[in-house]
Amino acid sequence: MANEKAVHLNEKSFDEVIPQNKVALVDFWASWCGPCRMVGPVIEQLADQYNGKALIGKVNVDEESELAMRYQVMSIPTVILFRNGKEIAREVGVMPKDKYASLLEANL
Amino acid sequence: MTDIAIIGGGPAGLSAAINARIRNKTVLLVTNDYKDSYLAKAERVDNYLGLPGLGGQELMEQFRKHAESQGVEEVNKRVISVMPMGESFFLSYESEVAEAKTIILTTGVVPAGKLPGEGEFLGKGVSYCATCDGMLYRGRKVVVVGKSADAVEEANYLHEIGCQVTFVADKEGTRGLAEGVELVTAKRLEIRGDKAAEALIADGREIPADGIFILRQAISPQDIMQGIQVENGSIVTNKRMETSIPGVFAAGDCTGRPYQIAKAVGEGQVAALYAAEYIDKMKKEN
């Protein structure tokens, strides 16, 4: 993606930003994972679509293993929906865009 | 972008590939090693028109030679998932990704049922992809349930990146495991845990593990492709071999009985023809 809109989060920015947003969708991914590379463009599309309405973020589990451990991410891609900083839903594995969008819609 | 991605290199997949090439479509064939296919293991086949009395492996070799002569290239990798992306499809095989206009599923007979606990703990310790999830288990105990030919390689990979690996095979004769990988032979397997998988029970023996990698010959169509319609374990198709997802076709044993070469070859051809037609229509519309 030439024009990345999803926010790349590290531990520090994650802890700052996630509780401040009413709704945040975070994609836990890594470069070695083929399925993650399929979800990536979908996350970017969502970031575009929900710009200003929800935070769409990405966590590289290779660089941020602390966050991956904290949220017990055991299989990637894992996409977690946070509401006011609390996890309220997660999807493990590749899902169609509608699935992530309906998670967002239900919580906005 | 490839025109047609074909998943599975048995008779249905090869027939689809040849017919797609004849119609000048580009083909990506992703498959297991052909020596692991059911057909290659058949001792003798007597009901395939024009080629009686050949062994399964011989037949497969002839089919493959034919495909090769048409410029079909194959990739020996495990397909993890396929996802519609508007006007095309993304498919991932291990750490790679490709884009195709249409998909033909020729994945063969759906493997027997899941292990007890497998569905419950999928994504919570149970994984089908060592390449994807292995790194998350560095320094921890993992079990590889080896039901496919490449399972040994995957177990060695996990060992290499620093997992403590136990390899569970259902019969004797596993070769090529790296030193330091423990080998267990067991038939009855069960996954236990609480919030996440904690152990594999192998013939009553408990093997504690944080990660359980189940590597089968084939992943079931629903696990590869979210939302595809399946009935009694077979992919539902119409006479044009179209599945419930536009642009996705299926052929061969994965669409149901009879599990016969002639049926697979015929369906593969039909699927390729209508996949080619689908692509041509798309071109006109754009």
TrEMBL record, chain A:
The active site is at C33 (nucleophile), C36 (nucleophile). The record marks D27 as: Deprotonates C-terminal active site Cys. It comes from the Bacteria. The record marks G34, P35 as: Contributes to redox potential value. One of its GO terms (cellular component) is cytoplasm. GO terms for molecular function: protein-disulfide reductase activity. CDD domains: TRX_family. Pfam families: Thioredoxin. Keywords: Disulfide bond, Electron transport, Redox-active center, Transport. Disulfide bonds join C33-C36. Residues 1-108 form the Thioredoxin domain. The keyword Electron transport applies. Belongs to the thioredoxin family. This is Thioredoxin.
TrEMBL record, chain B:
Pfam families: Pyr_redox_2 (PF07992). Keywords: Flavoprotein, Oxidoreductase. SUPFAM superfamilies: FAD/NAD(P)-binding domain (SSF51905). One of its GO terms (molecular function) is oxidoreductase activity. It comes from the Bacteria. InterPro entries: FAD/NAD-bd_sf (IPR036188), FAD/NAD-binding_dom (IPR023753), Ferredoxin-NADP_redctase_2 (IPR050097). Residues 3-268 form the FAD/NAD(P)-binding domain. The keyword Transcription regulation does not apply. This is Thioredoxin reductase (NADPH). It comes from Papillibacter cinnamivorans DSM 12816.
